[in-house]
Amino acid sequence: MTRPRNPVLLAVSFFTIAMLYLPLFGVAVFSVNSAKYGWVWKEFTLSWYTGLLANSYILDAAWNTLALALVSTLISTVIGTLLAIGISRFPWRRRTESLLDLLLNFPVVIPDIVMAGSLVVVFSLLRALSGLFEAGLATMIIGHATFQIAFVALVVRSRLVAIGTDIEEAARDLFADNWYLMRRVMLPLLLPGILAGAMLAFTLSLDDFVISFFTSGPDSQTLPLYIYSAVRRGVTPQIHALSTLVVLITVILVVLAERLSRK
Amino acid sequence: MSDQQARNLEIRGVTKTFGQVTALKAVNQEVRQGEFFTLLGPSGCGKTTLLRIVAGLELPTTGTIILSGRDITALPAARRQVNTVFQSYALFPHLSIFENVAFGLRSRRFPEAEVQRRVAATLDLLEMGAMRDRSPDQLSGGQRQRVAIARALVNEPEILLLDEPMSALDAKLRAQVQEELRRLQRRLGTTFIMVTHDQAEALVCSDRIAVMNAGEIIQCGTPAEVYDFPRSRFVAEFLGAANLLPAKRAGGGVETGVGRLRLEREPVWQEGLIAIRPEWIKVGTSEPAVNGVLATVEDIVYRGTNFDLTVTPGPMRVRTNAFKQFAIGDRVWLELPPPELVILED
Amino acid sequence: MAETPILWRGEMTTRRALTGRGLGFLSPGMLWLIGFLVLPSLLFIVLSFAERGVYGEVVWNFSLANYKRLAGFGTFGWTPDYLLILGRSVLVAFVTTSVSILLAYPLTFFIASRPPRSRFMWLIILIIPFWTNIVIRTYAWFFLFSPEFPFARVAAFLGLIEDGTSLYPSAFAVYVGMISDYLPFLALPLYSSVERLDWSLVEAAQDLYASKVRVFMQAILPQTAPGLTVGIILTFVPTMATFVVPDLLGGAKYMLVGNLIQQQFGPSRDWPFGAAISMALMLLTLLSMRIYRRKGASVDIL
Asked: Do residues B55 and A148 touch, judged by C-beta distance below 8 A?
């Protein structure tokens, strides 16, 4: 389609894109400006970036962010994949199926702040049972995995539906046993879906703020949490540098994910 | 050849219900060794269900399937010497053509040398040797169909099942592939059972056709038998065009809307239907000796090799060769030869 | 009955064996979601009827006190404060969603009309903000709106704000932040529908000399309705519940329901009241979506 060629359309589009990117761009520019305050350009510097490496709070936060994303993604990818297989490969009754559907869509539509609040309450009760539920990285991982599982399962399930039943029956017709079917047909075909689901889960974890904010403990700062609390103490070029880095990582992840999913 | 061997496949009293829906009603049918057998019927008639039961992908509710004297009803697909060409072809998209064809041998852990030999031979048989390293999405529809057939045949099945094998091909290719399939079956001598809703396809390919409707096989015979002597209105109408004339028994023949007609034998009913194919009606300018009908040409359609006329009384469809020229409004004599008048049983 | 064999996807098995195996696959995920999502949500409903103890602990005495308080009936008579916040949240979500629709249509049309090669790049440009952490994107506006920067200078020159102050906290800053933060949530699902748009219908409408509004309402809107609906849900639900944007850009001046909930779980430590507000939030969100569905249906008939 190459239809609309309207100047108003063009103007609105560029205005919107500017609105999305101007702030990020501004922050990036001032992250390499040696002036500490105000609307002045002094000279190009990377000192704010190198300064990040010297800041142990930021290094800890970066480590926590990564650990949180990796562990929660791992958990949710395994559980979500099993869930997707369990839902779509067995002859459940219609009622069971719609209940499972509801369960999958629940985390997608529930406001994150409500989910976060309810987790706070549950963790406070569970704390009586086990130290695992002390506010910290563990509770954050549980919180993240809870919304990631549903997304992974939805992605893997749509892949399972796309594969269809013919392929499986053809493999059976060609004398495949359970193990051969899994190893030679289902896993290779499902792998792109599982990877896409894991990628989505990872990005969701990096993108989250609310769940982390509610379930974090004193020693489990993440980068978004760090930036949020730093802003309230005032704007500094170091936060510009940190923000720009996070945006760059996001860009890389998005481009990678798009490349992968286009294959 | 003993009777037992000749009966390659026996379907005995097979019923299939899905919840409240009855897909098959006590089907009995035998398929002879080495024949090209076709299940023909409209969608939803149960033909695919029957094929899946033979394939071992569906269990019959009641009844048994006997292959070369052995009851295989309770055996799944993986334990039957029967292989299927799926309607979607269901090729493994992540495997090369060679590995697709080798799948059935590898899953049974055949030695590598034999896998290589048999796959290469089968690919050559279907003229797909040059494609062995391609992936399925690099092939055309016709090539994919060949791979699907090769993938099934490499296992040397007693029966090859084909579920609407032409449905993914365009019309022009279809005609060519039908003849190739027929040749392939003759050459191998393997029993083929094909499911189709396309009557022309069934007529071209088959040794015998079983026409199905509403979960039952209503007529089975050679293409010529089913086409020329349909036993029921459904078969007459489903296979090609037919003129159906309501008739009443009278004297030595029947009384119909186009006049009194003589028949070769007595109908069993008092009132029923007589069928005649458009191409068996002869058109002339003088009154024929028997079963002559004076008619008016109402409409003419040119079909290249012939004309299709619509005439009254009837109205009837008449097919004439392209040399005879008629105009709308012409008065013509039709001859409905008694041997071509089929008495329908329903 | 359960032991009769069935053929399932080419495998000979029994219904009981299949159910057992299926439950094996399902149980980790189901247990997790029930344990950390379903039961907590149910508990949350119960909690909203409980009361706060002196030290912020939960006292399981059930009453409607939290809801009464939310409706404005406090110890010192009736105040509209909480209801105002709830109403304002609906307004902000409604305005944000509407403006996002107005901006997203031209943008998605623009992207869809690019040649295939560069379309991918434009799409990435839309996807990147979608995945960028909201704290960073809000922080960026916070930074751009500081006193020395052109935006605040122009506003001060026009006499809209005092010289030397920032553009935040203000309703304006909240709206700018909200729209730019949540617009991708609407534009991306919408794009998937716009990409598949059948232009022959649009041309047919134009051939019949329909006005631009009618072309949009009758040829474009019905075709893009699926993507638009997903987009509206993805935008409206989080905008109703957001607290980062109003916290950084609105302050106490422009508080939304998200901030109110956050307060109960943060400094005020009044979980039962927080739960009650959450229930009100969910109710309002569902209600708004229902109204949209009704209106959406009537649009179709047009």
From this structure: no
User: Distance from C6 to chain B by nearest Cα, in Å?
Assistant: 7
Task: Choose, out of B17, B57, B72, B79, the residue to mutate when testing the contact with C (most C CBs < 10 Å).
Answer: B57
This model of the complex carries an ipTM of 0.90
Q: With an 8 Å Cβ cutoff, is C1 touching chain B?
A: no
Buried b (16+ CB within 10 A) or exposed e, B190-221: bbbbbbbbbbebbbbbbbbbbbbbebbbbbbb
pLDDT of B321 higher than 80:
no
- Token match 């305050």: residue? A37
Residue type, position C93, single letter: A
Structure tokens at C291: 């109204």
By CA distance, what is B154's nearest residue in A? Answer: A174
Cβ <8 Å between B57 and A174: no
Q: Do B86 and A188 lie within an 8 Å CB cutoff?
A: no
pLDDT level of residue C299 (50, 70, 90 thresholds): very low
Say whether C132 and A38 touch across the interface (CB within 8 A): no
Predicted pLDDT at B235: 95
Residue A206 distance to chain B (closest CA, Å)? 32
What is the C-alpha to C-alpha distance for residues B12 and B27, in angstroms, rounded to an integer? 7
Which amino acid is present at A36?
K
Say if residues C253 and C197 touch (Cβ distance below 8 Å). no
- A 6-35 residues with CB < 8 A to C: 8-10, 12-13, 15-17, 19-24, 26-27, 30
Homologous superfamily (CATH) of C86-301 is MetI-like (1.10.3720.10)
Distance to chain A for C90, nearest Cα, Å: 14
Cβ separation A171–C244 shorter than 8 A: no
The CATH code that applies to domain A59-222 is 1.10.3720.10
Short-list A133, A134, A149, CA closest to A205:
A149
Q: Do C199 and A228 touch (CB under 8 A)?
A: no
A226: closest CA of chain C, how far (Å): 10
Give this prediction's pTM: 0.87
Ordered by start, the domain boundaries in chain A are 59-222
**Which residue of chain B has the CA closest to A189?**
B94
**10 Å Cβ neighbour count for C190?**
27
Report the C-alpha gap between C206 and C4 in whole angstroms: 63
Residue scoring higher pLDDT (A224 or A263):
A224
| Residue C75 scores a pLDDT above 80 | no
DSSP C60: -
Q: Where are the domains of chain C?
A: 86-301
Which residues of chain C neighbour A5 with C-beta distances below 8 Å?
113
C183's enclosing H/E stretch is helix C171-194
Residue B220, pLDDT score: 96
Amino acid identity, residue C178?
M
Res A4: pLDDT: 52
Residues 6+ positions from A99 with CB-CB distance below 8 Å: none
Residue C242 C-alpha from the chain's centroid: 8
Query: Per residue in C119-134, pLDDT tens?
Result: 888 989 999 998 899 9
B62/C contact by beta carbon, under 8 A:
no
Is the CB of residue C98 less than 8 Å from the CB of residue C182? no
Q: Does B77 touch chain C (CB under 8 A)?
A: yes
